[in-house]
Amino acid sequence: MRGDGGDFEHIDALRLISFNIQAGNATAKYRDYVTKGWQHVLPHESRIANLDAIARLLAEFDIAGLQELDDGSLRTGFLNQTQYLAERAGFPFWSHQPNRRVSKIARTCNGVLSRLRPTDVEDHKLPGRIPGRGALAVFYGSGPSALLVVVAHLALGRGSRTMQLDFLNELIESETHVVLMGDFNASAGADEMTAFLDRTGLHAASADLETFPSWRPQRGIDHIFVSPSLRVRSCEVLPVTLSDHRPVAVDLALPESCVPLNGDQR
What is the DSSP string of 104-127? Predict the structure, then answer.
């Protein structure tokens, strides 16, 4: 995790956002996938303007979990989008996880932006029939009082997605205070998702909220899941078309038993 910022003695609430930003490409209709398809392989001026709009949105939050960023390839003019968004939105800490490379054309990654200093960041490659999916695990604090925030982007296929959920179950099973967010490519009510939630005890803060496609949401595939120890004050899908997904935002209350102290060692 890169950055330099002030310490926080204790916090009792957090605002989090999860957003698949589609490498900074705005999409307003299905036709854009065809007419603007070249924007996924070549740089263009409107991408920076769209990233700036995304940064303004993210600036209102404490932790942002992002999917489908590019960490520096031809299509972005070799710009690390995670770093760019962190700097534009004023986040002192950021980390990215490259997952899939297509020569020099595209370098897809997950990213985390944070106003709190993490104590540890883990990069996990997720299993699947096709490689290129990952999860970032960010720890705040130590021991049973730690808060674990995981950002993940799961596969399109149910078989691979089930394997990935099994992996995530093992990753979080020993932790008490957990936030798992990202693009799961499945509704919270899908069989594999229901089984995962039953095993982990997590619940969907964003249940029944539709996020895709952004211009006319019909599917809820972007989620924020939280452990029973964390109280959801509010959760909403933000009505923006800065990507082909809409972001999910949650306001969480942390119990006294969750103490994500900055600078602590896990």
Answer: TTEEEEEEEEESSPPSEEEEEEPP
Cβ atoms 206, 188 nearer than 8 A: yes
List the structure tokens of 206.
Answer: 């964003």
Three-class SS of residue 82?
Answer: helix
Nearest to 171 by CA among 148, 187, 201: 148
pLDDT by residue (tens digit) across 211-234? 999 999 999 999 999 999 999 999
Which residue has 């604090």 as its token pair?
Answer: 141
| Strands 248-253 vs 231-237: parallel, antiparallel or unpaired | antiparallel
CA dihedral (96, 100, 104, 105) positive or negative: negative
Please give the DSSP secondary-structure letter assigned to residue 95. Answer: E
Q: Which two tokens stand for residue 175?
A: 């932790």
3-class SS shares of the chain: helix, strand, coil, % to 5: 25, 30, 45
In the numeric block, which tokens belong to residue 186?
């499945």
Pairing of the two strands 177-183 and 147-153:
parallel
The tokens for 28 are 């307003």
| DSSP string for residues in 26-76 | ---STTHHHHTGGGGTS--HHHHHHHHHHHHHHTT-SEEEEEEEESS-GGG
Phi, psi of 204 (to 5 degrees): -85, 110
Give 89-134 pLDDT, tens digit per residue. Answer: 999 999 988 876 655 655 777 999 999 999 999 999 999 888 889 9
- Is 253 strand, coil or helix? strand
* Model confidence, pTM: 0.89
User: In a 10 Å sphere around its CB, with 0-12 CB exposed, 13-18 middle and 19+ buried, how is residue 1 labelled?
Assistant: middle
